[in-house]
Records
---
Amino acid sequence: MATINDNYLKLPGSYLFAEIGRRVAAYKEAHPQADIIRLGIGDVTQPLPPACIEAMHKAVDELAKAETFRGYGPEQGYSFLTEAILKNNYEPYGLHFGTDEIFVSDGSKSDCGNIQEIFGLTDKVAITDPVYPVYLDTNVMAGRTGELQEDGHFEGVTYLPCTAENNFAPELPQEHVDMIYLCCPNNPTGTTLSHAELKKWVDYAKKEDAVILFDAAYAAYITEDDVPRTIYEIEGATEVAIEFRSFSKTAGFTGTRCGYTIIPKGVTGKAADGSRVDFNRLWNRRHTTKFNGTAYIVQRGAAAIYTEEGKAQVKETIAYYMENARLIREGLKAAGIEAYGGINAPYIWLKTPNNMPSWDFFDKLLTEVNIVGTPGAGFGPCGEGYFRLTAFGGRENTLRAVERIKKMKI
Amino acid sequence: MATINDNYLKLPGSYLFAEIGRRVAAYKEAHPQADIIRLGIGDVTQPLPPACIEAMHKAVDELAKAETFRGYGPEQGYSFLTEAILKNNYEPYGLHFGTDEIFVSDGSKSDCGNIQEIFGLTDKVAITDPVYPVYLDTNVMAGRTGELQEDGHFEGVTYLPCTAENNFAPELPQEHVDMIYLCCPNNPTGTTLSHAELKKWVDYAKKEDAVILFDAAYAAYITEDDVPRTIYEIEGATEVAIEFRSFSKTAGFTGTRCGYTIIPKGVTGKAADGSRVDFNRLWNRRHTTKFNGTAYIVQRGAAAIYTEEGKAQVKETIAYYMENARLIREGLKAAGIEAYGGINAPYIWLKTPNNMPSWDFFDKLLTEVNIVGTPGAGFGPCGEGYFRLTAFGGRENTLRAVERIKKMKI
């Protein structure tokens, strides 16, 4: 008889943002007049850059004529896009990757979720705590973990606590691990790792023959000099790191879907027969077998952010969101709430007043001042007592949200 | 140390179409003047329906303004699309699914490849032979098979031969199987199963507590009355079948990327504790965890094929390709080559002259008459001695290809 993948039953009821959606919908149904401001899910609100709009209109028109029609493209992405990415995001740092070391996809969530498939099932996974839930959930689904424990941790996973106490910089694990998920700038905390801190991790990975899965979806928001824009700025990283990047937050592509993954050919893992195998080759096999390329229209839109106009437009929108971040950060401070992040990332990570549990604070914000945020506990046990607000709202809503929080009884 | 997923090493060198691409590129480099006609990969050549173009322009414009901007959508697809699909593709057959039983994706290749993740790793897989390579390759990657044998079969997989001898209708397996991949209209043979033949499979699945993974990507090409347009026309199928559908061949979306999967809530599998679990629930968890929805623009384009104009335009393009199919089928016949399919599908499956091996015939066609087709052996051992041509070329190229084949020495 057909059986199910029992690992799925280890996962708690629902994906974090689905649960938030459920609670907001229930509140809205009970209070249809409520003027809800959403600073929860990290979703952008500003329109796409005009350069992307123009490029996509042009691409749509190409699909309207047989002479310029595009069917299946290369699964790994069109060279007009991969070359633009490498030239703009890596070459300025003296980093030269081949176009066969980059894989365009329909978004970083897919890549971060699927990457674990090319690793052995007995590999030990390390994740920061709190962290974007996809890394952990996909490893649970694959069977790389044991059961969920009472303390909220999955058996067999190495959690790396990131709290105000250690300034959100995880310490190297005591035990050996094989796959290390790092997210920098971090989702949800909005904090970053310096060159020196990141170098510790690259050195650890080299020493332990581990691979770093580096999610840099928010790289475009980095403002401080000492924060690497890519992990490959760190010496030796091309031997031990896979990097994920996204157009979602960079250029408003959350509903347009485009991301990419860099897998340098020097990153290898051990096969059962003791030989070393390029992860690049395995990912290429996966990508060409289970994926059929990102929509041509979308790739044209993505490439447009590397034109002169595109660059200026992207910069402007990011500055807009980062001004929101400043307003939230300072507003929280004025309200007597401790807050972190928001300097190199569009996320503000606040300490809940009086150590209130995260989901209680979620309900309090939703019901008392009609603001939707994200409970820190949803990102891992060490997120308990924290709460995430995003700077992706419109300016007016952000200002109104800050005013409401300031007036809230805490 | 980090290890690799060793199952990948069981797979032969490259994905079928990558190998074809490699050979064609090599030939083209050696013969830059060659006038190559591609009837190999099943890729469309006609432009998108004007209704889709119009809808996508409108959607692009919506993304240009904050008031109409769309960020993350529901991972399962917007209701404007799911409702249109259900209303047009299922309700006319008296089939009523909930919008929570349909999942929109970036294409059927992804869904067909990923679906196996929600099944147990010890489930026995049956596939027709020959067949679209994705079903088998993704099960090899997951570890649901043994090694590749000398006869071209993977250990532990039940192959269901489909050849001219059995009129391309697979026989029920002697042994028990849990997951049955059926593709109807079939890729690559272009043949179909009648109501009665399909009913045998549904009855088998019910009896054996198996699940049918039914790929109906070519459903829009069916012309004969006795061929079901959806497996759910068969009584009992909503308890045992998952159906995959695509806009790729229906409306020219190979480079635009949209498909969907129907998982009725009655389709269940056994958990380790003996309970029954809905596959729908597991797929929903997978879809929301590893995927972030299909691009809004693309979904708007897809929905437009269900408008009155869209329907007429789609019908016209399909008729155009099916006329190509007729020309190829009859041309082959005139050339003394046996051919199948091409009545309910845009594929023609020919018997190679003098039982020539498929890859030899590929090279012969490529080098002698500059036509690219697909070697039958690339779809499985029973495809050896067969060859696939597609009707997706332009009319002129199709006519020229037929003339070239007629003049070829066989």
Note: Chain B has two domains: 13-47+309-407, 54-306.
---
Amino acid sequence: MRIAVDAMGGDHAPAATVEGAVEACSQNSQLSVILVGNETAIASELKKHKYSASQLRVKHASQTVEMDDSPMSALRRKKDSSIRIATDLLKSDDADGMVSAGNSGVVMATALLVLGKLSGVERPAIATVMPSLKGHFILIDAGANVDCKPVHLFQFGLMGEAYSRYIFNIENPKVGMLSIGEEDAKGNELTKESFKLLKNAGLNFIGNVEGRHIFEGDADVVVCDGFVGNIALKIAEGFAETTAKMLKREIVEKTAGEIGSDFLKKALSNFQKKTDYSEYGGAPLLGLNKPCIISHGRSTSKAIKNAVILAGMLHSKGILQIISKECKEGLAGRETVFIEE
Amino acid sequence: MRIAVDAMGGDHAPAATVEGAVEACSQNSQLSVILVGNETAIASELKKHKYSASQLRVKHASQTVEMDDSPMSALRRKKDSSIRIATDLLKSDDADGMVSAGNSGVVMATALLVLGKLSGVERPAIATVMPSLKGHFILIDAGANVDCKPVHLFQFGLMGEAYSRYIFNIENPKVGMLSIGEEDAKGNELTKESFKLLKNAGLNFIGNVEGRHIFEGDADVVVCDGFVGNIALKIAEGFAETTAKMLKREIVEKTAGEIGSDFLKKALSNFQKKTDYSEYGGAPLLGLNKPCIISHGRSTSKAIKNAVILAGMLHSKGILQIISKECKEGLAGRETVFIEE
């Protein structure tokens, strides 16, 4: 599996991107990485590591997309950016997947324009992993589509289920729709119509799930439109950060260095690790012709490593072919026996 | 101020509702409460307390709305429920406001049908208080309207601002719109159109705010449609509960009763208090002809007490008259000088 990595993307690039690529290759000998970006900067980072030359090569890109570049201007004026060159490598079949921790709006727009959609898929969607008491669940769409139709949410359900089943090895993933009450009739116009489609899809559809229950792990896949999903994701992220700050304040006020304080800091840091979704590597934009992983801007080398491995898995397991088939033909042909509701 | 309290509503009714009403009256001699519900059950609770008979009276209701009653069936078949009788007291001007911790869908539907909307208001909305690092902020709409038009979000901004200004005494409340990015152009069709209206309203409008920043206290009022708002609220609530559970698990695993454990439990409980929005009493359904406070199903007596006081304040400060005027005439007539963006 040949994975193109946007070496210039993210707050800690190129140090974290290069280190992450090196680590992914050393962990899996089947992987090779093309580091795309400023060749001088990449070479200088590569010097710090031991790696197999057969697994890592560099592809120069003269431009870098900034975090405040709009998708439109990047597409027009930065045709030699690391994001664009990486995407072009997928298009020309010189790579099997890509990873970028850069400007996510630009990555999405470029991938959609250059790679195009999978046959049968109406709208690609971001599938993000979130923590729950039982482990984790997939939230789809986490921000690619702000205005959706029922057929889109229906396909998000199919795509999220395939991702959960084949990448996270969940046997018969429970699919729920994010809504404001658990009764079938609760929701807005969009979710009520989407509910009917999902109910009859042949999925293990458990109906509506509420925001307060998703972290308990009721569903393995939580479906919503990208506006709601992005807000849900950021509320959770913001709340985790605020929680940590409030607890720290509580500790400082109440202990002033007494016994227990170090201990609490340790517990907090373990907790933050569990809720830090960048630990999962990144979120695939499912529904494109090739695997494209959008990593957090704050990605560490570990996150990049995991994202490269994820891109490789999406390719080697043929998830996109499965998604395309299911979106065109439905689930009727599947061998798996689904649990009746 | 005469406040009707649905004595039968909530998980801890009638004990918590009666105790809360007694406490509110003892705290504010201007308040009087009409406890609505089963008179035998209420009388038996009242025996446990000392109270001034001039401040508390009982109004019998032969029916109780259950949590699984639909608004439609409750409206049709439970015309002698505590929720309905309490609302009727407002309609006949025998009470100035009401509080219910019962089935919130039924409370909303009953209040809307019986009391009707304030002149000038298109859609009543729930204004909920949420915690932030700077104190708290108002989220409006937290669940009354699942499908909204731009004019609704615009009015939510006006109503939330008045609530923040006159009840929480924020001098020039910062109003933000919940969206998926801070740039003006970020959002879905609804928020983009609503943005234009809010920008030109004469409010201290700070533009879009992201889910991850609202808990930092960037905005005093956060505007969104009721579907998004309810999900945001429940995600935060669910995340707070999950955080507490995960941290507790972390403590048990790592300490097994060592020093620090009691201490951490204390810090956690303080934190939970800060994030428990039921501590704020309840959320008004703003835009009705009279103050109607929807309290959490798990309301304690303290929450009911605070809700009764809040209903009294909404009445005595004339917030509804202000809202009606502003929704009809805009803010042009206001004396306050607004900060230019």
Note: Residues 1-121+287-318 of chain B form a domain with the Isopropylmalate Dehydrogenase fold (CATH 3.40.718.10).
---
Amino acid sequence: MKRIDGGVTAAKGFFAANAAAGIKYQGRDDMALVYSEVPCVAAGTFTTNVVKASPVVWDMNLLKKGNKIQAVVLNSGIANACTGTVGDEMNDIMATSMAEALNANVANADLTKEMVFTASTGVIGMQLPKEPLVKGCGMLSKALGDSREAANKAARAIMTTDTVPKEACVSFEIDGKTVYIGGMAKGSGMIHPNMATMLSVVTTDVAIAAPLLQKAVSEVVADTFNMISVDRDTSTNDSFMVLANGLCGNQEITEENDNYQLFKEALYEVSKTLAKNMAKDGEGAEKLFETVVMGAKTKEKAKILAKSVITSNLVKTAIYGSDANWGRILCALGYAGVDFDPENVDLYITDGKQKMLLFTKGMATDYSEEEATRILSAKEVTAICDMHEGNESATAWGCDLTHEYVTINGDYRS
Amino acid sequence: MKRIDGGVTAAKGFFAANAAAGIKYQGRDDMALVYSEVPCVAAGTFTTNVVKASPVVWDMNLLKKGNKIQAVVLNSGIANACTGTVGDEMNDIMATSMAEALNANVANADLTKEMVFTASTGVIGMQLPKEPLVKGCGMLSKALGDSREAANKAARAIMTTDTVPKEACVSFEIDGKTVYIGGMAKGSGMIHPNMATMLSVVTTDVAIAAPLLQKAVSEVVADTFNMISVDRDTSTNDSFMVLANGLCGNQEITEENDNYQLFKEALYEVSKTLAKNMAKDGEGAEKLFETVVMGAKTKEKAKILAKSVITSNLVKTAIYGSDANWGRILCALGYAGVDFDPENVDLYITDGKQKMLLFTKGMATDYSEEEATRILSAKEVTAICDMHEGNESATAWGCDLTHEYVTINGDYRS
């Protein structure tokens, strides 16, 4: 597997577009489109929040029907959540307008609205404005390109409080054919995915049967997007959508063979990169904070423990202050809801270069506070908790809790 | 029932003391003692954190043995958690020194160490220094008083990042006798009690059988201390301890009769006041933020929903910014883990004077943002969520998430 510079247009037959439709923001792009020249097998995972945005309900329904998908239209600025029947109508207009515009402006396009995934992100409760939305779909249909730049501009168009676009891409070989998987994601606040993340679209030219694609997606999401958190708030709009158009020419993957494993590993790599970058770009964040729990009895327990540490406000503020307040990490392990013996836990911190043992045999080691602060001053910091109870491990990714987080969210809507 | 100005010395036969022992802080009180002239029936609830501080393990063990308790010795500055066997020894020294000092300096005192509850609060992982601890116990035993001032000074001595002491007191009549219940509490950060709160001691002169006292305590804690949160971090030291010495002269309460109900209501009043004041004095908090969930199917569901709202970082920052970002409240209800129909929810905000409907029938009302901001600018703000699914309700108390919270916790240990 090779990591390459690329996004949603890397895989064969995929195009992207961006547009400044004036949905809510003025003077910046706020709509994006991902389009495949042929219909795709699709899979996805969506928010488990009881309050689901209109586009989430729409997409889940299309997947349930087993529809082939050919386009994903996205907007930033307004989430189209908690918007009642009016919101559902606006979402329908979004899918319909996109299909019609593509059919009018793209050669050989023949889409129904039920071949279009929709996704929205932004303020909850506001209604999407109809005219900019319809106009935006028209603009998108005329702006499609398959260049590296087209993918990057689409990734930028879906940003809200994000400070950087998130893209990832890998390639690998199946049956002597080169397969590409490329994706984009957005997310910075209200990030505590529980099925998927805020918004992410991944495209691939592999040929794969729909049930296997969904299986790979679900398994990979559990170890990547579901293992990050910025603020422990599971959004109403979380959507992770994967489109596979089969254009790379491999023999369709129809069973869990070596090719399936290869594909899943590559999908994991792309998903992990996107998820980590989302945590690193958490609202107000200055640092990526990773927690590895090893030596756990079960993988599920390792996951619960790791997530408890990266979601603790007290741990997150200590990381912000580069303060080796390891007691807060022990405390967060302790209230995670998993039984363990604190006397068995070894706790380390590392910046990737130096690794330091802070706590063992129930007590603090004689570590140097100065050295610990130096390690924690890095831009990417990892806590390693060895439970010494088994052989399972898990990794979770979060960020520090900063003054800027409070500034951003004390006044987000204005 | 009458609310009165008072604390742990209000009930007959209870004394309190404070001392500047130099445990960690210099130049301020950091130890406190609550003492009853006769042994007491005791009850308590303690943290459910797997990582339990030495004093918590000690107290739970005394309660399990059914010991009568005559004194509670407390220190602030060092939590004596994650301190291994050395920590257990220091806790033993604390109980032993306190019993010995009381026996030496107080007329008729005859305590064993197993009649002394201990409690510690402060930094996790540091060891208690032996000499100041022993010296402090001596000072406390010579400083006992039953005045209003003595109670207040004890309440101040256990503060860490608290900005105000928390005390509450009520009186009521049983069998023609006046019963007093008075308490103190501390807590400002690492507050997400799950059995009890950081530290709280309540004294009463009622005569009551131990199992009934424990029953009342457990039930009251579930609706008061367990319904507050500052930062969703359940501490290693949470301890709520109630001592009943029977000196008011009522016939001992031995069954769940009217007198038991009277006592429980009074205990609820004291506990609720202490708990609310703790939320209001959350680290960096500028506002008390209350959430009432009504019309829920079950009380348990109402509690889960209410706590989900008050613990959301995004809701808390919006409250800080006096921003009526009600979508975040709906979102927090949605990910609470309880099923409901968002279309049925009515959402109001109130400052106790004006009540405003923000969301109904699945959509925002046409409310005035200006008016909403005015309501949310109050020092005590309430969100009311009517689920329209049943008749159960619950209230939870939290606070806003401010820049000052990040400042305090980015650099707590230094």
Note: The first helix of chain A runs from residue 54 to 65.
